[in-house]
Design brief:
single chain, elongated, about 60% helix, two-stranded antiparallel ribbon, 2 strands, about 5% strand, mainly alpha, 4 helices
């Protein structure tokens, strides 16, 4: 299956719940999720959502005569590689078809590869920057 894995979504939901409750640690059941894993899940989620939103925008621009709901369905289906379609694929331009094919590849390979790449990268910095507390809201 493609798209974002259910474990990634579960970690993101657990992180949101922990933040809303004011908890320092992210937990699922009797287990604590490491902050590095939460950051990886957040990175995969944000990059995936950004790709989906930008491709929806591109297809809406390229295909102005097609119902926006159908375009959204096609894009999400392509990213998740679920094989569902509203039947508009044959009516799309070649550019739109190539974009959807690229998204299918990204959805199948991208999030897993991204997570593995982030997991392998270890920062070996010998210094730390001063801490800052920006206002979030």
């Amino acid at each position: 299956a493609g798209g974002i894995k259910i474990t990634t979504v579960a970690v993101l939901i657990a992180a949101i719940v922990a933040e809303v409750r004011g908890q320092k640690d992210t937990t699922i059941g009797p287990r604590t999720i490491e902050p590095q894993i939460v950051r990886q899940a957040l990175t995969v989620g944000v990059i995936s959502a950004s790709a989906i939103v930008s491709i929806i925008g591109a297809l809406r621009f390229i295909e102005p005569n097609i119902d926006p709901d159908r375009i959204v369905f096609e894009v999400i289906s392509a990213f998740g590689t679920v094989g569902l379609s509203t039947g508009i694929t044959a009516d799309l331009t070649d550019a739109s078809k190539l974009i959807l094919c690229s998204l299918m590849y990204l959805g199948r390979i991208g999030p897993v590869t991204m997570a593995v790449a982030l997991a392998r990268r270890a920062s070996d910095r010998r210094f730390t920057y001063p801490k800052e507390r920006p206002y979030i809201g």
